[in-house]
Design brief:
single chain; Elongation Factor Tu (Ef-tu), domain 3; 3 domains; seven-stranded antiparallel sheet; 5% helix; elongated
Length: 317
């Protein structure tokens, strides 16, 4: 089974925080624990002997791998092991694995399911329609079971929802809940389970009213006070390998005169090709009351000096 560990929506003092900036990571985290361990002891040749309550002959197989997590007084078993033998003597199943016994333990679990993955789907909260998009998260039988699902993956889910055929933004907010199911080699029939939490809102642009919308072709994008906003920068290994970049912003008045400069947002390194994302809302606590424009800048730090990249953009606020 898997348990929901972390859900992005938070409720603080009765206020629901469920709105997220488009193209930021919005993660749901699960913890997988296939079977509880009754005890850990020493087997032949001082190998690890795992005892489970119940009959698991025909479920676990010699030669396959399992992941074991179990805590003793001074030692934690936290690794994958190959199954050497399986024996059932009512009411317990004993599994001998190819690992060295260190000390006894009685609290833990194993993951044994092979060809395992979690499949997710999104549910439109306005009409309960299940979206056609799904994502598969693999976590095989020798894995620890930490599962993270990014439900704001624009490639798989949301890009086709927000952009019409002309490339314009056609929908400003996506509202959805998440369904999931476990699938593995011996079980292909699990039904989807709805995560019965507050819906997740993904904001791609804000509306002044029911007609006017912002699209992706505006020369001067707009940040709306009180709404989440993020920006992304793609960088390549070939041109900028190993450099440290710093993202900053300047506040400007209505005439684009600087009010404050070089306000820190984030740093990142270009160790390989990738994408840097910064959530402007999280990094800023309070803006100058006369601020009407924000100028974002990315600079590369080289030999104790800054080389300016060709990235600078003004955003109205």
């Amino acid at each position: 089974m898997i348990n929901l560990v972390s859900y992005p929506v938070e409720i603080n003092s009765g206020k629901i925080n469920n709105m997220f900036a488009g193209f930021d990571d919005v993660n749901i985290e699960f913890k997988r624990e296939d079977l509880s361990v009754f005890s850990i002891g020493s087997g032949p040749d001082n190998k690890i002997l795992i005892t489970l309550s119940g009959d698991y002959l025909g479920v676990l197989f010699v030669g396959e791998w399992l992941y074991l997590f179990a805590t003793g007084i001074n030692y934690i078993y936290d690794n994958s092991f190959k199954i050497i033998s399986i024996d059932y003597s009512s009411p317990d199943t004993e599994i001998l694995v190819n690992g060295d016994f260190i000390e006894s333990a009685s609290v833990g679990y194993i993951n044994y399911k092979q060809d395992y993955f979690v499949e997710t789907k999104l549910v439109n909260v306005d009409n309960n329609a299940i979206r056609q998009f799904s994502e598969t998260i693999s976590d095989d039988g020798n894995a620890s079971g930490e599962i993270t699902i990014n439900v704001n993956n624009p490639v798989n889910y949301l890009e086709s929802d927000i952009l019409d055929n002309s490339g314009l933004v056609s929908n400003s907010v996506n509202r959805f809940k998440v369904m999931y199911r476990e699938v593995w080699r011996e079980n292909q029939t699990e039904v989807f389970i709805l995560i019965d939490e507050e819906p997740i809102y993904i904001l791609y642009n804000a509306e002044l009213n029911g007609i006017e919308k912002i699209n992706n072709k505006l020369e001067e994008p707009i940040i709306w006070d009180g709404y989440p906003f993020s920006f992304s920068l793609f960088h390549s290994l070939e041109n900028n390998s190993g450099l440290t970049y710093e993202a900053t912003f300047n506040e400007m008045d209505i005439n684009k005169n600087n009010l404050t400069t070089e306000n820190f947002i984030n740093t990142f390194k270009t160790l390989d090709f990738g994408q840097m994302q910064a959530n402007f809302t999280d990094k800023t606590t309070e803006l100058n009351e006369n601020t009407r424009y924000i100028n974002f800048n990315i600079n590369a730090f080289v030999l104790s000096d800054y080389d300016s990249l060709e990235y600078s953009s003004d955003y109205a606020i």
